[in-house]
Amino acid sequence: MQADLSPVIAATTQWLTCAYPASGGALASALCEVQARQAVTVAARLRYPTPMDAALMTMSGPGGSDRLDWITGADGAPAADPDDHAWRTWVDEVVASWAACLLTDPELAALAVAALAEDGPVTGTPVEFRRLLVPDERDRRAAALLRHPDLLASVAELHLDQLVDRLGPGRALVA
Question: Would you say 50 and 158 are in contact if contact means Cβ atoms under 8 Å apart?
Answer without folding.
Answer: no
